[in-house]
């Protein structure tokens, strides 16, 4: 019994395929603190799962992978709950705003163009910046250990940020910030994630590393913890309104991804923050190139099912 | 003379009646399948459908399996800003089947008049002629869009049109035929119709049809019904299972790591 029929996707699949995919993406999730939706959804579509089912089922799978990863990171003391809570509040509000923004963009026409270009630019800029920055840091050698201290207060922006009210000490991350900063950054990620239709893990990680100056290991744990909540919400909404979660497929993906997330976390313990960053940067850049190719090369068939993204 | 003619006509009538009832040149077309119900179980990976029956001598056969004719919404990809390919407009293909398989003993365009093809919906060209695109487009674009639609369906294994592969054997009672359709897992649960047309001199001279039901059973059926009818409950169950799996594996790794 190598094949299993997926009732919602109306598709039959070799069981080792989703387990293998789950293992791979779950590992990345535990390593980098991303949901991996930007990787899993296109992979599932490649094996014949309809786009809407692929996206919805993937968010169900991420609930498993990120709870597995969050648990592992929590045991390692890598989750900054206070920072996570502020970011979550911000991204919740941002998500609501983002949904309205999409409606507005669609009414203006050409919304998809704006969305796709924003997506590619964000991925490209984030990937390139992380790549160069971590490469330089790796070259410099590891003079400083992980767990940087306070943000460097040279720039004017940093001064303004420091003068904001509600300065809070985030013990786990070892930084002192105004509570307004993570809320605003969370809102920004929420807007972008809603507009681009992605979970936002790949945006959350660089924001925490570069703007909130959190150490990489805490970033990964906290990001996974946030993704867990986002994906619980998305899974419920998709199942309730669109009926697109394929439970059978989710279970197979989970079998791989929950184990993958644990392995990823263990592997992450052996790598330095900059090594993790450069690996994530490479993955993000590969995904960017793939999306650019998909967008610029003439498609094989000029029609696609309506009801996708 | 008059009496002679009357006698002849009385003698001719039973002869004609006998000829109509006699087997052979006047055999009726029949159709049957070995697989009129396909159950989708947990390990379902497609099936095959054998179609067989009898028909008249000296005819070609067209065998079609199709589903209900519906309207399908699709997105058309176009180059935006002269640079990027993306979904640009929504179109609706009206009066098209979700699934359409056609096999014929010879090329449909050579054995059937185009009017007959259209009337009976035989072949891709007839499908195009009987379908409509909404919002309306010019004939050139409609042709391109429809051929893209066919390619999309063929890629998804929901449409096919092939010539040959129909075994026909002459017997005392007309001729018998047999063919096998691959039934891919992509064909969703639905009620399908198998129709056989006997074709002679460019026209359909006889036809027969039978049904084919594809349905989910057992776990597959229960899950589909739950997903469709109790979406909220299904969503919560999916979340709980995912959380339990994630945390369960977490605990296993913890104890595993601690013990060894």
Write structural notes for this entry:
The complex is a heterodimer of chains A (309) and B (260). In chain A, strand 3 and strand 4 (175-178) form a beta hairpin. The two termini of chain A are 33 Å apart. Chain A has eleven helices and five strands; from the N terminus they run ββααααααββαααααβ. Chain A has one domain. Chain A is globular, with a radius of gyration of 19 Å. Chain A has 309 residues and is mainly α. Chain A has helices at 16-32, 37-46, 51-75, 81-108, 111-140, 156-163, 180-196, 201-211, 216-242, 247-270, 273-296; strands spanning 3-6, 11-14, 167-170, 175-178, 303-305. In chain A, the strands form two sheets. Chain A has a two-stranded antiparallel sheet with strand order 1-2. A two-stranded antiparallel ribbon of chain A has the order 3-4. In chain A, 72% of the residues lie in helices and 6% in strands. By secondary structure, chain B is α+β, with helices and mostly antiparallel strands. Chain B folds into two domains: 26-215, Immunoglobulin-like (Sandwich); 222-252, no CATH class. Helix content of chain B is 37%, strand content 38%. In chain B, the strands form three sheets. Chain B has a six-stranded mixed beta sheet. A four-stranded antiparallel beta sheet of chain B has the order 1-3-11-10, with no helix packed on it. In chain B, strands 5-6-8 form a three-stranded antiparallel beta sheet. In chain B, a hairpin with a 4-residue loop joins strand 10 and strand 11. The radius of gyration of chain B is 27 Å and the shape is flat. Strand 5 (303-305) of chain A pairs antiparallel with strand 5 of chain B, so a sheet runs across the interface.
């Amino acid at each position: 019994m190598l094949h299993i029929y997926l009732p919602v996707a109306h598709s039959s699949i070799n069981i080792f395929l989703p387990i293998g995919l789950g293992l791979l993406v779950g590992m990345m999730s535990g390593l980098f603190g991303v949901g991996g939706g930007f990787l899993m959804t296109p992979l599932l579509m490649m094996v014949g799962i309809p786009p809407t089912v692929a996206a919805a089922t993937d968010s169900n799978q991420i609930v498993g992978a990120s709870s597995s990863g969050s648990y592992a990171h929590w045991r390692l003391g890598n989750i900054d709950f206070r920072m996570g809570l502020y970011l979550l509040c911000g991204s919740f509000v941002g998500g609501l705003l983002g949904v309205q923004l999409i409606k507005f963009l669609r009414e203006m026409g050409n919304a998809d163009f704006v969305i796709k270009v924003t997506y590619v630019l964000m991925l490209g800029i984030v990937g390139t910046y992380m790549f160069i920055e971590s490469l330089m840091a790796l070259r410099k050698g590891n003079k400083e250990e992980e767990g940087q201290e306070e943000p460097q207060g040279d720039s004017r922006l940093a001064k303004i940020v420091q003068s904001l009210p509600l300065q809070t000490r985030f013990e786990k991350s070892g930084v002192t910030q105004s509570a307004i900063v993570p809320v605003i950054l969370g809102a920004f990620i929420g807007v972008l994630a809603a507009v681009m239709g992605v979970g936002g893990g790949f945006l959350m990680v660089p924001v925490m590393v570069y703007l909130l100056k959190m150490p990489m290991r805490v970033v990964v744990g906290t990001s996974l913890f946030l993704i867990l909540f986002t994906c619980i919400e998305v899974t419920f909404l998709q199942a309730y309104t669109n009926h697109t979660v394929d439970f059978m497929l989710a279970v197979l993906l989970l079998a791989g991804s929950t184990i993958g997330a644990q392995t990823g976390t263990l592997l992450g313990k052996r790598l330095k923050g900059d090594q993790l960053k450069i690996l994530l940067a490479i993955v993000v850049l590969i995904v960017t190139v793939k999306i650019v190719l998909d967008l610029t090369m003439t498609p094989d068939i000029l029609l696609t099912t309506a009801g996708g993204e | 003379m008059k009496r002679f003619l009357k006698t002849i006509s009385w003698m001719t009538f039973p002869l004609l009646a006998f000829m109509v009832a006699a087997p052979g040149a006047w055999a009726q077309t029949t159709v049957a399948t070995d697989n009129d119900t396909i159950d989708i179980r947990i390990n379902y990976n497609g099936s095959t459908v054998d179609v067989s029956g009898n028909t008249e001598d000296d005819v070609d056969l067209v065998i079609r399996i199709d589903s209900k004719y519906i309207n399908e919404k699709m997105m058309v990809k176009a180059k935006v800003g002269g640079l990027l390919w993306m979904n640009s407009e929504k179109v609706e293909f009206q009066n098209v089947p979700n699934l359409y398989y056609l096999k014929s003993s010879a090329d449909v365009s050579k054995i059937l008049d185009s009017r007959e093809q259209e009337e009976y919906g035989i072949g891709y060209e007839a499908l195009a002629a009987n379908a409509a695109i909404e919002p309306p487009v010019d004939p050139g674009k409609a042709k391109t869009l429809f051929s893209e639609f066919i390619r999309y369906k063929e890629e998804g294994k929901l449409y096919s049109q092939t010539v040959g592969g129909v075994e026909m054997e002459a017997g005392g009672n007309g001729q018998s035929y047999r063919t096998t359709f691959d039934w891919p897992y992509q064909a969703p649960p639905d009620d399908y119709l198998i129709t056989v047309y006997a074709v002679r001199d460019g026209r359909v001279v006889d036809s027969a049809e039978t049904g084919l039901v594809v349905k989910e059973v057992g776990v597959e059926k229960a899950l589909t019904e739950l997903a469709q009818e109790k979406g909220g409950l299904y969503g919560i169950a999916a979340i709980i299972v995912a959380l339990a799996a994630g945390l369960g594996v977490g605990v296993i790794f913890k104890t595993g790591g601690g013990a060894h």
